[in-house]
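RECORD TYPE: protein structure
NAME: Nicotinamide phosphoribosyltransferase
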Amino acid sequence: MTNPLLATDSYKQSHFCQYPPEARRISAYVEARPNGFSEDVLFFGLQAYLKKVLLTPITAAQIAQAGAVCAAHGVPFNRDGWQQILEDHGGLFPLEIKALPEGTLAPSGVPLVQVENTDERMPWLTTWVETALLRSLWYPSTVATLSLKCKEIIYRGLLATSDDPDAQVPFKLHDFGARGVSSAESAALGGMAHLVNFAGTDTMEAVEAASTWYGAEMAGFSIPAAEHSTMTSWGADREEQAYANMLEQFAAPGKLVAVVSDSYDIDNAVNRIWCGSLKERVLNSGATVVIRPDSGDPVATPLRVLETLWSSYGGTENRKGARVLNPAIRVIQGDGMTLKSIRELVGELVRQKWSVDNIAFGMGGGLLQQLNRDTMRFAMKANAMKTADDHWVDVSKNPVSDPGKASKAGRQAVVERDGRLQAARLDNIDPATDQLKPVYRDGRLLTDWSFDEVRARSNGHLAQKVAA
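PREDICTED:
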């Protein structure tokens, strides 16, 4: 969809004639309502929407196209309103958007964004953008939150078993989710959200997005790695040769190469080949060869592989009393990894005195696709209306049938009290203390967060959570 006038729900095309006649401005906010997934949300993704959509003027051709589509579709079309935006605002949306700094970890129920129309002829515009704005926020923020939850589990495991947890953690969860999402844009936004917390990815749209929207020079990295087709094309009788070719092509001093090794029998491949016929080539290569089991129990299988590798390659015991394999050999577990299985596997590694240094984790659809807007109950709701007599009146909902869907009344603010962010009414605080700061106004970007700034903010929150 390239016409922003059609990037909304059909029913919103009729809302311009539904507000009361005294309406001049509408204020609305976005939050992740209290939910069963996470007490906090890692806010991320707004800047991509601002730059991609709101900094691009609408055109007369888009108005004409949207008018024709709406007529055929059976809904009204606010041609006069869009024409005013085109002629009086150069095609740029007359809105003010305030937001928390991206990378902020905010409690659920705390507003992340607040939107208000600046042209008083257009109170309908604030909530008209809900559809595109909300999906630009809920998805990357939910992925970023899930990724951070995984990072906390892994980091705690590293603190218990690694001599250098801070250097280890950036590459401990690798994104394999590009093929499992619904669109290239989802891969870009979700993959980029994961990169707020980690530096390992195979989603190339994500590194492009981080560069385009947040100025990252290179946000994510990968290594040469085998897939089943490149291994099984050699045939079962040449499995060893397939692995040997990987060493010949990619194993050099200081390099890493990952080899999927379960095409036929993971235990045979590890015992007979990696710990047998190819062992000396691995040791002499100067590289680190990463063995990838890709089937079986996601906890028991990698633990079994580690034990086999230890019996052959050996290693050392670090200062935490945990076993660290010979640096020539490592394991990555990318199959069946979820928040639950990562927690279980890390727990077993710690219990069995394995350093988490020995293993990396990978996630695909579980990271980028197996979530939705209801995972963290994201919503955008109107909270105030400015009337013709220049007064703001409260706007809210409070359904008897579901009190959990009650919305906030009055223009919102976010304040910090006792080190934690809280929602407040804007008219009850000193506006200077409001953590919601203008990021967009009338076609101008007011704040341009760099990817490094977002990452630093998220890393700071992780350090606080672990220290608490």
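COMMENT: The first strand starts at residue 23 and ends at 32.
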